[in-house]
User: Fold this.
Amino acid sequence: MSPPGASPPPHPPGPARRLLERLVAGDPAGPSILGDLHEDFVRVARRRGGFAARWWYRREVVALALDRGAAASSSLLRRNGPVHDMLFRPGWMQDARVGLRRFRREPGFALLLVLVIGLGVGATTAVYSVLRPLLIAPLPFEHPERLVWVENDGDRASLSSVTSRTSNLRDFRASSRSFDGVTGYFAFFEQSSYALSGDGPPEELVGVGVADDFFDVLGVTPVLGRDFTPEEGAWNGPPAVMLTHRLFTHRFEADPDIVGRTITLNGRGWEVVGVLPPSFDFSSVFKPGVPVDILVPFAISDETDRWGNTLSIVGRLRDDASVESAQADLDALLSGIAEAQPDRWGLAARVSPLRDYVSGAFRPVLFLLAGAAGTVILLVCVNVANVLLARSPRRSREIAVRRALGATRGQVVRQQLVESVMLATAGGGVGVLIATLVSRGVARTSGVDIPLLSSVQVEGSALVIALMSALVTGVAVGILPALRAADGSESGTLRSGGRGSSHGKGTRGLLEGLVVAEVAIACVLLLAGGLFLRSFQQVLEVDLGFEPEGALAWTLNPGGAFESVTEEADFYREVSRQLSDLPGVESVGLIDALPLGKNRSWMVRADHQLPSDPPSEIFPHLADPGYRAAMRIPLVEGRDLAWTDTDETDPVVLLNESAAAALFPGENAVGRDVMLGSNAWRVVGVVADVRHVGPERPAGLQVYFPITQLWDYGTLDLVVRSDRAAAEVADAVSATLSGLDASMPTRQVTPLPASVDRIVSPRRFALRILSAFGVVALVLVALGIYGVLSHSVSERRKEIAIRMAVGATAESVRRSLVLRTAVLALAGLVIGLAVGLVGTRTVESLLFGVAPTDPLTLVGLTGLLLGVSLLSGTVPAVRASRTNSARVLKE
Amino acid sequence: MATDKLGEFELLVLLSILRQGDEPFANRVRDDLEEHAHRRVTRGALYRTLDRLADKGFLRWSLDTAEVPERGGHPVRRLEVTEAGLAAVRRSRDVLTSFLRGLDPLLDAPS
Assistant:
């Protein structure tokens, strides 16, 4: 580790450096080339930071590899005449020219195929671009593969259960042998905020407290200024603040002179010590959906240790350590501490790679999307192959002529392949365009609880994926029709009078087989999409226990310092009173943490439990008397909190139904006591459960303490319920709040439905992608069936004419064709459902409230696919039934 | 065996090596060309040109121990233009000079 404040010496990325070593291994000047790149890498790192420099290094190595590859191939080709001739002889260009002429003659057909392939390539590339930052690209830190997440061993839904005391971090630093560095940040940073005043309108900032070596351990160097010093990281140290690049550009107009200046936060002066690089996005990695503006030092000291579990810990493994050895190391260390200090609590550590922590929860859904994208590209291949195959009789005469004039089978196949690869390459271009638009949209999406979404972009590796999938599609869709075309018997075709031969039974069977495959593939995709849609509906139907509609929320951060807790309570009571008097305001409430946002947990016991009994973990809520009504949380029994509950009356609490049932099973909780430490709090009421963490998690045990009796909060959330327009209410509330405290930021208002939207955002995000894929699948199935049947009808005109001439009615012709379509669609459905029902077992964990065999989904999916199939088959069937048999037979 | 043909980029590379004085290294040459010849020089193109000039006998090089820590312990390639290289540069200069003679009024006229 470098000393605090110094930036670690940069190292080129290992894999790229090893590739370069291999690349120049046989070159006498190789060692100097390694040095040249290293020297330039250091230069770029000093100018633009380690992260940018490592990407620069990778690009340089790839460019050098491509350059050397191209040079080697051209010299090899020059030495190998036949290979050179085969690749560069005029035939290829001739084939390409023939292909271009064909596409010009049939622009609609070519455009359709290009668009279809573009959809497939676009889907694959877009999903890859979304997956890359989370699953493939390294996290934006120095040697991210050595960073680990060290958490307490509780349930991840409760932040207090997975955070650690600062004493744990100090012990890890002092005694662990596995780490080059261990650091942490204050996990409950959302409980408070920083009001920025002066230099423009007041602004509410989100700030994170970090240990003074936080950036050093992550390997992040400020682009301007310096790192925190140990003095600043001490308890009551000099107030210092590090700006995120976003705040630096938005609020301070990227003025480098801001470094060293003092800004006013919560009425106090803080020195701006540095600006973080744009590549460092705290919230994107550690807290998606919560935009962080500033980072401040957080003391790792006895004082903060008394706050209990507050730290999220990140460690950097030594070169010779692994996750397993670090886990063993910490286990041994903690059991030693437990032995030496029997009263010490919170001693646990669960070590995992930082990447697993960041993206672990999203892996299943990302893999589902990857599978869906793969299915779409497969569907595209089948669809395009089908169309090309269906059109092959039209080309058979041309091919027969070429064969008769001496073209080899290989040349015929090559011609067809060149055409399909040309189409696929053009489709690849369209796909990249689609993927770029989708990626930009995704990167700009705000309020989605998925990490690293802002890093989504179509970059080099995504372009390679697009190119590869386009080429593979081109070859895959071209090979089958090409081989069938080349197999045609040219003499028969030439004798058939120029109309081109019709499909043989074999080809027709193949075409119908492909239609069945399309329906089956679409069925798998739609089954996954349908189940996800039903899960989403179930999530939205969950009773949250409160009513989000019609409620607006603010975070209140009064700028003035209060002399006493009574004065603070009086201020909030006045806030509540004045806002309640506003026209159109139904109710006003205050709480330390609204549902679906922040959470923390405390331990309590019921009055009948002994101090030696294990305590129960609860979500504590500090609320005012108006909160329950403002949120429309039903009161089940007893009374509500009241302004008359003060520090001079008995301490009182409300329990939710789950807490009442868990703490006082089978008894009436009202009138009983809940013990918080050694203090007894009288239960005066029971309220309905609220899904505090999210609709997919149980409510848990909740205890409501009055803000007039307990002051363990940094800021309070205000909720105002009104039937007036949100903008009108927001203006009136802002004006009232500013009248009460001019320095209090009041502009950042959140409608409660937006909080619900944010909490279900990962599901909605995945559902949108799956829905888009589902629509694409349906369109492709419709196109496939329509195309094949249309061709089949035009091929069988004579047969249909003869049947009608000998007495078949138009109705029977229509029926037989529609029946054929139904048979094909049903066959596809049976296969698709069989595969899909096995496949959906693997994503069962992503479903909510529905089984993989959900009857509604299965019935809906069957109906939808059958409907689309029959509709697509009906048009050609009607056309066939209008055949004028006399005219056709005369042709 | 020196061939006397010298392409434009090869000439610029040789001139740049001569301009570097005590530090005739590939990175310096690349920076010089980008800054003063106003052209984007890829690493691959520069290394290939250096190899080609060495094959033509216009260039010699040797690996020296690097004095600076920024090279990560890797040696540096010291480039040296040979007599044949100097002769080729002179020939190119003479051809250019003779072709430019008398064109100053035309070239310096305001466009």
